[in-house]
Design a protein that fits this description.
The protein is an alpha/beta fold and 272 residues long. The chain has 2 domains: 2-189, no CATH class; 193-271, no CATH class. It is built from 10 helices and 9 strands. It has helices at 2-7, 9-41, 111-125, 160-166, 174-187, 192-214, 218-230, 235-241, 244-253, 259-271; strands at 49-58, 63-72, 75-82, 86-91, 96-101, 104-109, 134-140, 144-149, 153-156. The chain has a 5-stranded mixed sheet with strand order 1-2-3-7-9, sandwiched between helices. A 4-stranded mixed sheet has the order 6-5-4-8. β2 (63-72) and β3 (75-82) form a beta hairpin.
Length: 272
């Protein structure tokens, strides 16, 4: 029996690899999506466009991670990538969008809002270029079927460069482009330790919020929400707190006429 099992060693390896893939699938898909977009962006003229990938810009208390920034004579393009499959449904002003894979639905943060925080982080750093437009783009894999209602640029991966090339009016010169690129590169946090600190910080804030909700601590919940929304750059972190999962949690753990329930539900309703 032992000899039989020993001969099937390759099956154990495949099982182990499959298990690891299940654990790291979201990160792998995200990485593949970003690499795909990077490949497309390389087709842009090096004379007119400079591409920055995986940029981590510091904010007041943490950092914001931007998948791709393209600096050009025609504007600065801030790109958020989503390597999803299935139907993608959502509206421009919805707090959450929906992924539907053969009837199995899951919610995720509205990427337009997520990218808005990235745009603001870039805007703060190039505020002296008042006439230069910052154009947000959300790019999805062609493995999905986009069914979203928005006037913003929500496109498939292979359409990103098409959108970028549509902008042909020049607002700055090549020297300005070099200056902006240098500025963003100087601000970019390259240290793995700093990036890890950012992830730990966000997780700790979510833990604090969950604890406050679990203990029905109105003051702590309200304080957390206000702090998260006090600064525009905190928008992406506020989204971590205010999402569909929180609505479910409120419905399951708190009474509808409870003061905490009403307070947080109002925050969700009026701020998103």
């Amino acid at each position: 029996m032992f000899d039989f099992l020993n001969k099937l060693w390759y099956l154990w390896i495949l099982i182990a690899l499959a298990a690891l893939y299940q654990i790291f699938e979201p990160k792998i898909k995200g990485w593949l999506g970003e690499k795909t977009i990077s490949t497309y962006l390389r087709t842009l003229s090096h004379e007119n466009y400079t591409v920055l990938n995986d940029v981590h810009l510091p904010t007041d208390n943490w950092t914001t991670q931007i998948d791709h920034i393209v600096v050009s004579l025609y504007g600065v393009f801030v790109i958020e990538t989503k390597n999803y499959k299935g139907w993608i449904l959502g509206r421009e002003n919805s707090s959450q969008w929906t992924q539907n894979i053969y009837g199995k639905k899951s919610s995720f943060m509205n990427p337009l809002r997520q990218n808005y925080a990235h745009v603001k982080a870039v805007e703060v750093r190039i505020s002296q270029y008042t006439s230069l437009p910052i154009i947000p783009i959300v790019a999805f894999s062609s493995a999905c079927d986009l069914k979203v209602k928005t006037t913003n640029h929500v496109v498939y991966f292979h359409k990103v460069c098409v959108v970028i090339r549509e902008y042909k009016e020049k607002f700055i010169n090549k020297h300005d482009v070099e200056s902006i690129v240098a500025l963003l590169q100087d601000e970019n946090i390259k240290s793995k330790e700093k990036k890890k600190e950012h992830v730990n910080f966000v997780h700790s804030k979510k833990t604090e919020f969950d604890y406050a909700v679990a203990n029905e601590n109105v003051l702590n919940v309200v304080t957390t929400l206000k702090n998260a929304m006090a600064n525009t750059e905190s928008f992406s972190v506020a989204q971590i707190f205010l999402n569909a999962d929180l609505r479910i949690k409120l419905n399951q753990t708190l009474l509808p006429n409870n003061q905490l329930y009403l307070c947080v539900n109002n925050c969700i309703t009026y701020h998103l």
